Amino acid sequence: MLRLALVLVLILAAFGVAALASRRKDQGTPVTTRGNLPTHVRRSDFVRPDAAWLVVLFSSATCASCAEARKIVEPLDSAEVAVAEVEFAAHRSLHERYDIDAVPSVIVCDGSGAVRASFLGPPKAADLWSTLAELRDQEID
């Protein structure tokens, strides 16, 4: 009976050591994140650098949700708001310059190129449009 108890204790101890080793191993594994978005852009890299606002859609021809994002972004184009789609195959250098690693990504920039809002994935129209309206209202105040 004593031998059986000793064997059980050794088995439980082995499981405990294995669990502890596994936990330590996980702590050393680096975390990888996706979805880099810039905090500032060169307005001259995009259409109409003189416009008060810039909305940029970083996209890819192979991205199914990019078409949905395009439909949400395009209606914002106006005298005050320049809209640019930066498709990966056509403008790879801009994706690389701004370290874009996920599409669709949408950024809203002011006249100086500061990114004032960003959306990773296709934004909801109401969210993007109201965000831009609020940013523009802040400029007026």
What do you see in this structure?
The model has no long low-confidence stretch (mean pLDDT 85). This protein has two domains: 1-31; 43-140, Glutaredoxin (3-Layer(aba) Sandwich), CATH 3.40.30. 41% of the residues lie in helices and 18% in strands. Strand 1 (53-59), helix 2 and strand 2 form a beta-alpha-beta unit. It has 141 residues and is α+β, with helices and mostly antiparallel strands. Strands 2-1-3-4 form a four-stranded mixed beta sheet.
Major β-sheet profile: 4 strands, mixed
Give the C-alpha Rg: 25 Å
Quaternary status: single chain
- Classified by CATH, the class of the largest domain is Alpha Beta
Separate helix tally: 4
- Secondary-structure-based class equals alpha+beta
**Helix and strand run:** HEHEHEEH
Shape: globular
| Parts with pLDDT < 50 across at least 5 consecutive residues | none
Layout of strands and helices, then pairs:
Blueprint: H1 2-27, E1 53-59, H2 64-73, E2 81-87, H3 92-97, E3 105-109, E4 115-120, H4 125-140
Parallel strand pairs: 1-2
Antiparallel strand pairs: 1-3, 3-4
Defining traits:
Glutaredoxin; alpha+beta; 141 residues
Brief write-up:
This protein has 141 residues and is of the alpha+beta class. The chain has 4 helices and 4 strands; from the N terminus they run αβαβαββα.
